[in-house]
Amino acid sequence: MTSSIRVAVLTVPSPHSWIIINSLVERFGPVHVIAEKREERLTLIRRRMKRQGVLTVVGQIGFVLLQKVIQRRARHRIGEIIQDMRLDPQPNPACELYAVGSVNAMACRAALAMIKPDVVLVIGTRIIGRETLSAVNVPVINVHAGWAPRYRGQAGGYWALAEDDPEHAGVTVHLVDQGVDTGAILYQDRFEATPADSFPTYFYMQAGVSRRLAVKAVEDVLAGTVTTVKSDLDSKQYYHPTLWGYLWTAIRRGVW
Fold first, then answer.
1. What is the model's pTM?
2. Per-residue confidence in pLDDT tens, the chain, 256 aa
3. What residues contact 55, with CB distance under 8 A and at least 6 apart?
4. Cα 94 from Cα 100, distance rounded (Å)
5. Which domains does the chain possess?
């Protein structure tokens, strides 16, 4: 691919998003990264309380605290996954970064107008509103860490395993619409969890599996050969687990 191709990535920068971005760079050359600021914790908590209720959010906060312990214990396994899958989770200095407060801010739309992308890839941002979506007239593609539409929302890989549904523990690359991971499906693939894996490691495996799908989806857009896949699965949106729900699943099913 030539350097004239302009790929824009909307993301909250993380090791998982850089794994995918670095694969794009390897295929297409440096890409433009519009980096969304992580939402303020208090704002996020208030919004979730309105949507999910106080008790559920208290349980989710408890899970976040436990997750810090799980993350430390998972470091060795994460290192194994990075080595075995040949992942590159480091920020790429060849990519131009544009810092914005939100993907729905005017600054994001201004960055997109300046970049004039041929395709936009989304990795782990807030829900993109109509105004930002209408600011570009090219396909906007999302990399979702779950098997849509059955596991929409957050932590889809974990929830598939927690629901004893490993056949749908995977990732989805889909077109973006106004819903939560409801756009037309382009590609899907599974990941294989082992007894050594836990909540933090699923995301690294999912990022590794997503690389090829994201590259292929961008290639399809550039070639004008985008095709979608129909799914007859049920549709459900998931959120982060609560502390007690997570521990009960770990005891009952051995899924951490």
1. 0.94
2. 455 899 999 999 999 999 999 999 999 999 999 999 998 888 889 989 998 999 999 999 999 999 999 999 999 999 999 999 999 999 999 999 999 999 999 999 999 999 999 999 999 999 999 999 999 999 999 999 999 999 999 999 999 999 999 999 999 999 999 889 999 999 999 999 999 999 999 999 999 999 999 999 999 999 999 999 999 999 999 999 999 999 999 999 999 9
3. none
4. 19
5. 7-253 (3.40.50.12230)
